[in-house]
Structures
1.
Amino acid sequence: MKTTGIHHVAIICSDYQRSKIFYVEVLGFSIIQETFRAERNSYKLDLRVGENAQIELFSFPNPPQRSSSPEACGLRHLAFQVDDIEQTVDYLNSKGLEVETIRIDEITGKKFTFFKDPDNLPLEIYEN
């Protein structure tokens, strides 16, 4: 098997409108397509992240809770690449988001930090 990249990451949210505002208006991802699936009483929002990646944001009635602890089995976190981490942290703080202290990756020497989405999903920003 030969892959050419990651196409998308799927996220199920608890409050569709709140998460849509967060990912579109706060993080600045552009909408590719928004679909309401009446038979499932569910929205699917396709978002453009950078040049080649996407997030599929899903809503479902009463989704079960899932542990979002960084060391829990399963997806650990979602990381976004940025050019200027300090500027990005300042922007996120201006939007009322709590961002952890910037750290240095001991392997790559690059700066990174974490914040959370409306459902407490850990999100990372990682400097180029």
2.
Amino acid sequence: MSKIVVLGGGESGVGAALLAKHEGFDVFLSDQGQLKPEYQQSLLDAQIPFEQGAHSMDKILEAQEIIISPGIPEKSPIVKEIKQKNISLVSEIEFASRYTQAKIIAITGSNGKTTTTLLTYHLLKEAGLKVGLAGNIGHSFAKQVMEKQHEYYVLEISSFQLDRCFHFAPDVAVLLNITPDHLDRYEYQFENYIQSKFRIFQNAKTNTTCIFWSGDPVLQSHASSLPHQAQIKTISFDDSNANMLIQNDQLKGSSQFQLNLADAPLKGPHNAINMSAAILAAEAVGISAESIHLALKTFENAPHRLEPCGTWKGVQFINDSKATNVDAVFYALNSFKQPIILIIGGVDKGNEYEVLDDLVKEKVKGIICLGIDNQKLESHFGPIGTSIFSTDNLQAAVQKSIEWGQSGDIVLLSPACASFDLFKNYEDRGNQFKAMVKMLNDGK
């Protein structure tokens, strides 16, 4: 019996272990941290041996194949040791895709992939299809494959997951955009990250639908890497030959699909691209324009993505905590016409802030740097002339925004950085921000 080791005991790792056991493999799971009680119970129920708090390399290196958590970097000692032994090292996505005949829509991009994934899933679900939501969101893809309840899957795929995909071949592949992100995981080489994202197309065939925004500068400069053999569907702001054209506050499809953006559930030009991608993906699996229009009316985006979270004395607070890179902040600033007080900062991931300069000059009346080390932000934005306040305390940040804010202003939490210096994760950061805004309204 072949042995499979799973590294990482989170949602994806435990799901992969369960599927591997179901498929007849000898399975062992190892996690350097502590497993949640419910995950421990799932493994115990399935009689899968596991360890936590350490990695036993002698057991791990006995494997014929290792399924690795996307959170474990390529440069970690354990990965280097596995590579030296030439043991197959794959992601949960790669492993689980071997055991399903369901049609798969896979969505990646530096920004917007969660919104696009959720909307695509919503369009399919509302059309009555048996569809699962997985990947970088929702429940484990592998566990759902084991349960065989779905005929379609919509998967949000990160670059880390793609790095360990080799034969994964989605029926519909969506690449929204590529902007610098996670460069700390890619030796601070943008090209390495670009090549990771392009892996979404690496196994595209003539009947694969590949969807992308043709205006993305990186996709334009890497045109030779695009899957020209596939069924290509493009989104554009100015190309009348595009399959989805965003123009004059309207979204027009080559399939005669048309939507007034004023009536759309998502606002901002970046969300027009996200909606276009979701609509094209839904059309690719046979969803009608009528069904799409009906489903759009009932869609609600996930929290922490340009999420309105209250108004105080005419000042509107927006929680965009999911904006963990510079390009996401660029999109956020472009979504508002009102004066903005920007709360930015956290763990810098090799960010370059120059792309924000013109928008900051045009729209931002004050910048609040929120992090343990704000020196890079202060030195970059200081010379621009916008008011700057620096703190490592969220309450102080909100208080300063109240002092600066006037009726009609926007206070925008859009950090451009990871959250781990002051918060558990971006959700914790967003939830604490929302709680403080609620306290303002409660008069506390």
3.
Amino acid sequence: MNLKAFIRDIDNFPQEGVIFKDITPLLADAKAMQYTLDRLLEMVGDVKIDKVVGMESRGFFFAPLLAQRLNAGFIPVRKPGKLPAEKTSQTYDLEYGTDTLEIHSDAILTGEKILVHDDVLATGGTAKATCDLIKRLGGEIVQCNFLIELDFLKGRSKLGETDVKALLNY
């Protein structure tokens, strides 16, 4: 199946000069979604995963499905003010300014094997901040797993020695 046929380019969104990779056509097609989930799982292989961490918000589409199929828990990483219990925060740099991500402080136990999933790896800031949170809580990142990687932005370079896999590359 040609998954790129289900990815729509939106020019100048969310700002001028950006070509946004819209995955909603893929999400609207049951066969494309199932095919995508199966391919994302193949990228993980037979490695034991204890928790799947998904980033707000588009990482929430496939991360819980991956967790369910891997017999693992799902952990959301959110923007500030969205999680109700004690949190651990990580601030990171954006092109113009900073942003912050949060995770529940009790979400990951020391030594747990973690799969990180998001829809797109772009500049790598969100993925690196998420990995930093996981490491601070004692988790061991097995893989960072993405639906799409925008190669020209070189986001994987921020993830060091972490195993990074993407289903589609642009």
4.
Amino acid sequence: MLRTLLRPGIAGAVALALGAGFLAAPATAAGGAPKPDAPKKVISAYFTNWSVYGRGYFVKDIPADKLNVIQYAFGVPTFNQATGAVGCDVLDPWADYQQVYWGPENTVDGVADTYPGQNVYGNFNQLRKLKAANPHLRIEISLGGWTKSTWFSSVAKTAERRQAFVSACIDTFIKGNLPTGGWPEDAGGIGVAKGIFDGIDLDWEYPTAKADSNVDYGPEDRHNATLLAQEFRRQLDVQGRADGKHYLLTAALPAAKSSTKYYELREFTKSMDWVNIMTYDYNVSGGSVAGPSTLFTRDPRDPEADDWTWNTVGTVGYYLAQGVPASKIVVGVPFYGVQYIRNADGLYKAFDNTGMNPDSLVWDSKPQPSYHDLVDVSGVLTPAGATTGGWTRKWNVFAGEPYLWNPAAEHVLTTGTVTAPTTIVYTDPKSLAERTALIKLLGLRGAMAWELSQDSDDNALINALNPVLR
């Protein structure tokens, strides 16, 4: 069975990683049975509010027929150190609910906004339209993320703060009470966004660690995260009873066995409908060698190869071993690659990304080009997977991932234009087919993608995940 579903050679790796009783955790363990009105299988993808600025990717561009959950990024935990007040706010009021669509070209239904008189404009209004046209669709607000988890430790510190924070999040995003006082003058108000969001996704990166910018973090975060999840579940259930529906609660969790230093996995997951495991960023542009961002199976050449969980299959096995039910596991995939320049010896060799700019919109200037960049912008990859412009596509048989090699790629850097040997690791439909097979084989809940605007114009990556729903 394994050999018919997965590429040759993976069967042994899956058996090793998921052996030794790791499949003993049944789908119904730890409250694992899906709620009747929650999606039984999940293809979830992030939509970022800044997509409308960068790529010019709008809600209308979301392939709603190919997925069933959208995670809107991001909402922001807030905390006032002087007063102790907690809050839960929108990240970008303009993109979220103030931007008026004066014409029909960027709207879901081809109808321009009516100004004044709507109270909700921008992405929120378009998401409402998208849901109306696709009744199967669920939308969650994702809270935090790498740069906006600043105050999670603070708002989770005490029972009083947890209760107030959860109440504030439900008030803003579930009850739909949006701030007023901006422009348009009628934007926002009490209950104006109710019904847009079907749940809350927690993206605390990471409890017990500073990560990008956490304040007042400490070892107590690990248990406080569990208590915060329980408080969210309690209050969402109360609100759900009032509204006659089940509100989703999910979370983005880190990969590999190191995840347990951040979370009490089994206890935390009990409160969740499912958890999205971020099985990517195993190797990053700030690392020491040019390695794949996401490994499907173990690569003995990887600097972390001694850790058998340092790959997608191993991470899934570890979560199962920790008592997380298969029915609550959603496998994360990146729609972006990692670019390593001045990399003369190729994969797992040294590189020097000096001069790369993560904020650049130019594909060859940034360390993380998207699949859209590779296919639709640069054309170094054709939709059929062929290469152009001196690039060669290779396959990492150990990790189960593709990569590109060019001995003389040109890059426009902050330090000037250089020509250098370059490796780009990335995700493609073939590598995603392996995830799809794994999900089906083990009865996992589904797949999650970061993020929609990074897919190709023909939605090749989200299409490759779609069999999860069938």
